[in-house]
């Protein structure tokens, strides 16, 4: 599918000016417009990780990340929504085959949203599980056909123990239901990634069929292929692809701003002719190139493990998360520096640099790339050293 990926990148490049012109509109609406979603469908975004057997492209993981980054360079909310909508397809093979076939019976361009927080409860009942909960950060829920949630499984109202047994984390299962069965609460009033429509979703005392549940950590996928064998290990790098794309967009926009000939107050020369500005720009660009190189190296390593069937590892999950944190932190620093270098002009809502900065700060708050998770990689290093 190399040619398909190249075709998608070419399509995105052609669509970039028109999509970039919609950024302020998307942010004001707090969601993607229906025609923007249709445009993403026409490019093939929502089918790029769907199996070829079901009409998808089943792209190699690094190629898919390249496409997500390309969209994030255009606009952070578009890139984030595309990332959620496309990579959700890697979860779905963890459902029973009959449920999987039902979801894709009308074709591969199925749109998903969801929240990975186990913010609901599921208790066994006749016909499945009785589910109640309220889930935050359901990116893309305004245009999704199906929504994914995660629940703590209970019995008589008490959490069941997970694989580690009593004293360990409770048993958690994911599930999927049509979007019409969820209640969307208008809560997405935020500082960044405003256009992703990441509202809360909820349901109360709803019976969800047992066949709609999945075990993301230890389940056996109903579809073959390396994309579907160790989904949690792949997800931090999806986040990184968005971060790098947004940061690359910020650098490009700063360069364009400087090339207008702008000269700041009390500056001896225009920005583009200032050696101080040139030096700072060079440093920022080096940071972003480093983030891109780290992403590509980690994605290539993960993909080799996926192809060899060795990706399902706590150590590799920690390694990917470590990479995602460093990349997010580096990209935030770069966007902050771009904003600062641009001066007072970057304060206006018409400036894409203030949006880039806000979007990256919002993305870095996500659990997949939050700095507190550095501790996991440190723990693995200590344990490995102790065993060596």
UniProtKB/TrEMBL annotation:
It comes from the Bacteria. GO terms for molecular function: acyl-CoA dehydrogenase activity; flavin adenine dinucleotide binding. This is Uncharacterized protein. It holds the Pfam family Acyl-CoA_dh_2. Residues 19-89 form the Acyl-CoA dehydrogenase/oxidase N-terminal domain. GO terms for biological process: fatty acid beta-oxidation using acyl-CoA dehydrogenase. Transmembrane segments: none annotated. One of its GO terms (cellular component) is cytoplasm. Residues 237-369 form the Acyl-CoA dehydrogenase C-terminal domain. InterPro entries: Acyl-CoA_dehydrogenase, Acyl-CoA_DH_C, Acyl-CoA_Oxase/DH_mid-dom_sf, AcylCo_DH-like_C, AcylCoA_DH/ox_N, AcylCoA_DH/ox_N_sf, AcylCoA_DH/oxidase_NM_dom_sf. Belongs to the HpaH/HsaA monooxygenase family. It comes from Caballeronia glathei.
């Amino acid at each position: 599918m190399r040619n398909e990926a190249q075709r998608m990148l070419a399509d995105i490049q052609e669509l970039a000016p028109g999509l970039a012109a919609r950024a302020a509109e998307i942010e004001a609406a707090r969601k993607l417009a229906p025609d923007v979603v249709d445009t993403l469908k026409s490019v093939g975004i929502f089918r790029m990780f769907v199996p070829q057997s079901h009409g998808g492209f089943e792209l190699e993981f690094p190629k898919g990340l390249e496409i997500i980054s390309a969209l994030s360079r255009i606009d952070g909310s578009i890139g984030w929504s595309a990332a959620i909508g496309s990579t959700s397809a890697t979860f779905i093979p963890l459902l029973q085959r009959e449920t999987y076939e039902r979801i894709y019976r009308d074709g591969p361009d199925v749109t998903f949203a969801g929240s990975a927080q186990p913010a609901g409860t599921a208790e066994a009942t006749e016909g499945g599980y009785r589910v109640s909960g309220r889930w935050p950060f359901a990116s893309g829920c305004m245009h999704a056909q199906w929504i994914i949630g995660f629940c703590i499984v209970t019995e008589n109202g008490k959490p069941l123990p997970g694989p580690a047994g009593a004293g360990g984390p409770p048993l958690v299962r994911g599930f999927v239901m049509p979007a019409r069965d969820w209640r969307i609460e208008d809560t997405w009033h935020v500082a960044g990634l405003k256009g992703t429509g990441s509202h809360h979703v909820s349901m109360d005392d709803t019976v969800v069929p047992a066949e709609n549940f999945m075990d993301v950590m230890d389940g056996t996928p109903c579809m073959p292929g390396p994309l579907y064998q160790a989904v949690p290990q792949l997800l931090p790098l999806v986040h990184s692809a968005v971060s790098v794309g947004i940061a690359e967009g910020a650098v490009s926009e700063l360069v364009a701003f400087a090339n207008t000939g702008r000269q700041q107050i009390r500056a001896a020369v225009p920005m583009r002719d200032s050696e101080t500005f040139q030096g700072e720009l060079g440093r920022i660009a080096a940071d972003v190139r480093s983030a891109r190189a780290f992403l590509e190296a980690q994605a290539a390593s993960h993909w080799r493990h996926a192809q060899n069937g060795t990706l399902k590892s706590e150590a590799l999950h920690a390694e990917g998360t470590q990479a995602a944190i460093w990349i997010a932190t580096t990209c935030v620093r770069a966007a902050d520096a771009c904003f600062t270098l641009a001066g007072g002009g970057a304060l206006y809502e018409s400036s894409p640099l203030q949006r880039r900065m806000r979007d990256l700060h919002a993305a870095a708050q996500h659990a997949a790339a939050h700095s507190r998770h550095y501790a996991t990689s440190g723990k693995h290093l200590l344990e490995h050293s102790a065993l060596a």
